[in-house]
């Protein structure tokens, strides 16, 4: 419970995007409609209960996979270059062009497995273990907002896109592997084409 004093707006945070506000309401609406009683949060209306319950549900689900992938970058750029570049060399993920500094989102919930830098490859990158036999890779990032062991919810910002490592231009490298997560063209059966799954209702895991 939280006591609220004064005037202005009450902002309801979107737990999936820590730096964004989902909605804002004038403080008088909370008081006049009974969303707050005597300056304190209470469940005096279905609206206040819905807001709090939705928030708690999202927090509780942090770290849990849904079995579907949202787009890790909120733009309409095509996901391409899987499983090879135009020149024919192996490429285990999909590339999504985007300006440096674009928020990168967890495509599904899970636990941060790896946060590293590889100059000759992914640059700054994050691996999320979804706990269902699949992991996702996010490469060439400029900044990273999470650390190993963090639980993340689907849609949570994990950093910002960049052009680090072996990159020919600003983009996000998004890669998905299933157990045992082996690397390389000889282990292509361990890979999924991420471009077939992001932003659709197609399930990558039951």
Structural class per helix/strand content? mainly beta
CATH class of the largest domain: Mainly Beta
Question: How big is the Rg?
Answer: 20 Å
CATH homologous superfamily (4th level) name of the largest domain: Glucose Permease (Domain IIA)
Give the name of the CATH architecture of the largest domain: Distorted Sandwich
At CATH level 3, the topology of the largest domain is: Glucose Permease (Domain IIA)
The biggest beta sheet reads: 9 strands, antiparallel
Pattern of helices and strands: EEHEEHEEEEEEEEE
How far apart the termini lie comes to 38 Å
Query: Which residue ranges are poorly predicted, with pLDDT under 50 across at least 5 consecutive positions?
Result: 1-7, 13-22, 35-44
Instruction: Compute the number of strand runs.
Output: 13
Q: Mean pLDDT across all residues, rounded?
A: 82
Number of domains: 2
Strand content of the residues, in percent? 25-35%
* Helical residues, percent: 10-25%
Count of helical stretches: 2
Q: Judging from the principal axes of the Cα atoms, what is the shape?
A: globular
Protein name: M23 family metallopeptidase
Pfam family, one: Peptidase_M23
Organism: Candidatus Aphodocola excrementigallinarum
GO molecular function: metalloendopeptidase activity
């Amino acid at each position: 419970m939280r006591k609220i004093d004064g005037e202005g707006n009450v902002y309801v945070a979107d737990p999936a995007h820590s730096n964004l506000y989902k909605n804002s309401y004038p403080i008088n609406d909370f008081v006049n409609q009974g969303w707050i009683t005597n300056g304190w949060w209470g469940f005096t209306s279905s609206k206040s209960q819905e807001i709090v319950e939705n928030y708690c549900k999202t927090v509780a689900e942090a770290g849990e996979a849904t079995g579907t992938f949202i787009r890790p970058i909120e733009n309409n750029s095509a996901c391409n270059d899987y499983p090879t570049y135009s020149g024919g060399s192996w490429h285990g993920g999909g590339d999504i062009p985007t300006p440096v500094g674009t928020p990168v989102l967890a495509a599904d919930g899970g636990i941060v497995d790896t946060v590293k830098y590889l100059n000759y490859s992914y640059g700054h990158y994050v691996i999320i273990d979804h706990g269902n036999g699949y992991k996702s890779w996010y490469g060439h990032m400029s900044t990273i907002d999470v650390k190993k062991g963090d639980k993340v919810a689907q849609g949570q910002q994990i950093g910002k896109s960049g052009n680090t490592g072996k990159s020919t231009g600003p983009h996000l490298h998004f890669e998905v592997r299933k157990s045992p997560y082996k690397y390389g063209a000889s282990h292509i059966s361990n890979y999924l084409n991420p471009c077939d799954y992001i932003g659709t209702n197609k399930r990558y895991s039951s």
